[in-house]
Amino acid sequence: MRLSNTQDSYGLLAVTLHWLVAITVVGLFALGLWMVELTYYDDWYRSAPAIHKAVGVLLFIVVALRLGWRTRGPRPAPVASHSTLERRAAATAHVLLYALLFAVMLSGYLISTADGRPVDVLGVFQVPALISDLPGQADIAGKVHLYLAISLVSLAGLHALAALKHHVIDRDPTLLRMLGRDPARSPRGRRAPAPPLDS
Amino acid sequence: MTILRTSSTAVGSLAVAAAIAAAGLLPTTAAAEVEKYVIDTEGAHAFIQFRIQHLGYSWLYGRFNDFGGSFTYDTDDPDNSSIQVDIDPASLDSNHAERDKHLRGEDFLDVDQYPEAGFASTAVTWHEDGTGTVTGDLTLRGITKPVTLEVEEIGAGPDPWGGYRRGFEGSTSFPLKDFGIDYDLGPASTDVEMILSVEGIRQDG
């Protein structure tokens, strides 16, 4: 499997970054919901938020790199059997996923930096507070962070369901491509597009 | 002296000087009345602080930044005095935004649900030693309960700008659970102390 993308397959880097972001987003979502329910005498009361913030900062770096990689290298064309509607819906969802990712990360950053404190990343480095002391900043950013995170994970769930639909119902290589398979070399890629249901 | 200096520098503003002079003269004629004071939140010469033990090892201090109120003081019969304060619980400030967010949330003051807090005295008793006891109703988290403040008068007298001021400090302590807060902060931190430190500007005329 090559590192870079080709016209019809995803390279190792794109595939790795995709799944790394997917697992991290789901993990941070679960960690975030869990940690806010912890009480004062829980062992994780202090460390869970610290980990959540640190991983969030690292995720920002990964997503920025991923977006950079996406804009530089070749991007595989949509699978040939996808309808125009599917292509448009998928493209819209992908843009929204990136927008929500950045919005969730920004709102989280604004909670922690509301009074000018930096975000500490596992004691290795700190992200300075650039915007602080806005009226009600921590509270508003906190609510925004929660609702945007729910939106992000919901849309990611829809994105996953769509991929499974392509795999199980349409039996096209959409999901396999993101698992690193080259459709030109897989049986599904050589298959003729499935006929439309209404024909 | 202040009045004279003010009127000599405020050239061409005789009306203002006269008004200031009149305000400055009033104290001598208001001695026998129940004096009315507005708490000087505008000049921030008033503070509503709280403190609670952290793990039993130190005191954590916080305050409410937005509040307002007034008090009366009867110079003939100081027991016939009163005070009322309205507090915006959302203005809580413990110098840590994330902690403040938690304290404003459902685990503590739940300010979205209960946006009003305050204190209104019901009885005032001054003792021989100059300290006093103010009993009144404290409202926090939608619950109103009587509390007793131990109070002392810090001082009273004319200010340098033609007004007249009087200040008190009082404190009370109560269990958080009295006001519906049952979050476990540890055995040393079940009670919170509230400190009311206010200066009032007498409202004359």
From TrEMBL, chain A:
It is found in: Cell membrane. Residues 179-199 are annotated as: Disordered. The keyword Cytoplasm does not apply. Keywords: Cell membrane, Electron transport, Heme, Iron, Membrane, Metal-binding, Transmembrane, Transmembrane helix, Transport. Residues 10-180 form the Cytochrome b561 bacterial/Ni-hydrogenase domain. InterPro entries: Cyt_b561_bac/Ni-Hgenase, Cytochrome_b561_oxidase, Di-haem_cyt_TM. It is a multi-pass membrane protein. The chain crosses the membrane at residues 12-35, 50-69, 90-111, 144-164. It comes from Thiohalocapsa halophila. This is Cytochrome b. The keyword Plastid does not apply. Belongs to the cytochrome b561 family. PANTHER family: CYTOCHROME B561, CYTOCHROME B561 HOMOLOG 2. Its cofactor is heme b. Its main location: membrane.
Automatic annotation (TrEMBL), chain B:
Residues 36-201 form the Lipid/polyisoprenoid-binding YceI-like domain. Pfam families: YceI (PF04264). InterPro entries: Lipid/polyisoprenoid-bd_YceI (IPR007372), TTHA0802/YceI-like_sf (IPR036761). Residues 1-32 form the signal peptide. SUPFAM superfamilies: YceI-like. It comes from the Bacteria. The keyword Signal applies. Keywords: Signal. PANTHER family: PROTEIN YCEI. This is Lipid/polyisoprenoid-binding YceI-like domain-containing protein. It comes from Thiohalocapsa halophila.
